[in-house]
Amino acid sequence: MGGRTAHGAPGLVVAETTVVPVPVVVQAASVRVADFIDHTVLKAETTRGEIDKLCAEAVEHRFAAVCVNGVWTARCARLVKGSGVKVATVVGFPLGAMTSAAKAFETKQAVADGADEIDMVAALGHILDEDWDHVEDDIRAVVEAAAGRTVKVILETAALQPLTVVKAAAIAMEAGAHFVKTSTGFHPSGGATAEAVALMRLVVGDALGVKASGGVRDCATALKMIAAGASRLGTSSGVKLVDCLGAGPMPLADLLASPDKHEASCKSGNCETY
């Protein structure tokens, strides 16, 4: 398929050995930290009560979305209905090693159950093999099954070399995805890094969203991800972040002024509010 972006992103010159990420900060008069947060619970042992609590917190704080496994999609859709909070459902989670047909079927079921957004795991083995036709077709199958809903593509960036991140992000964009996302949070290679976020933002520009997920548990980390270009944060610590940084809007420049000042206190959960 010679017309695809399989061997590099259009308009980018990328060295084979070194990629220097360039942080991008979205300019805005003011922002709410809650607008960045996908309030997330994806553990296998999650109970109905934990889902109800997740949704209640998301509605109270007006988070961007709740992010859950498919078995909880319909319940979440009922619980957040009319609140403006989106329901994001994971597909092919956490391995991404299912067939494209299985991912598409899972996506259709999630949409039928009320999902607004689909967080799909890309085919990591095929990415490492640089089988870009398969990777693109796999993503496109989910995009088509989502029928216009937002699709976020999880790349497991910690398991990839920078140049491979560039190629995979470009393929996701070519396949019609709406976001690229760092991690499932379950892979042994690790979670989000500011460098991976900045690199993906460099590739997709303003055309796609970038979601940082995996290890975003404190304000210092969250602010570094936003400064690097993240437009969403997948985290189970959303309430803590809002308690730390405040619920109301603030100038983005003020929000990002000193990410490191929060590090010591946020990790203990005692960071003072702005």
Description of the structure:
- The chain is of the alpha/beta class and 274 residues long.
- It has a single domain (33-267), classed as TIM Barrel (Alpha-Beta Barrel), CATH 3.20.20.
- It contains eleven helices and eight strands.
- It has helices spanning 48-61, 73-80, 100-112, 124-128, 132-146, 162-174, 194-204, 219-228, 238-245, 252-255, 263-267; strands spanning 37-40, 65-68, 86-91, 117-121, 150-154, 179-181, 209-213, 232-235.
- It has an eight-stranded parallel barrel, surrounded by seven helices.
- The radius of gyration is 18 Å and the shape is globular.
- It starts with 36 loop residues before the first strand and ends in a 7-residue tail after the last helix.
- The model is unreliable at 1-27 (pLDDT under 50).
Topology:
Blueprint: E1 37-40, H1 48-61, E2 65-68, H2 73-80, E3 86-91, H3 100-112, E4 117-121, H4 124-128, H5 132-146, E5 150-154, H6 162-174, E6 179-181, H7 194-204, E7 209-213, H8 219-228, E8 232-235, H9 238-245, H10 252-255, H11 263-267
Helix pairs in contact: 1-2, 3-5, 5-6, 6-7, 7-8
End-to-end Cα distance: 52 Å
Total beta strands: 8
CATH-assigned fold name: TIM Barrel
Can you write the helix and strand succession as a string? EHEHEHEHHEHEHEHEHHH
- Overall geometry comes to globular
What would CATH call the class?
Answer: Alpha Beta
**Considering DSSP H and I runs of 4 or more, what fraction of the residues is helical?**
25-40%
How much strand? 5-15%
The DSSP helix count reads: 11
Q: CATH H level: which superfamily?
A: Aldolase class I
Strand order of the largest sheet: 1-2-3-4-5-6-7-8
| Radius of gyration, in angstroms, nearest whole number | 18 Å
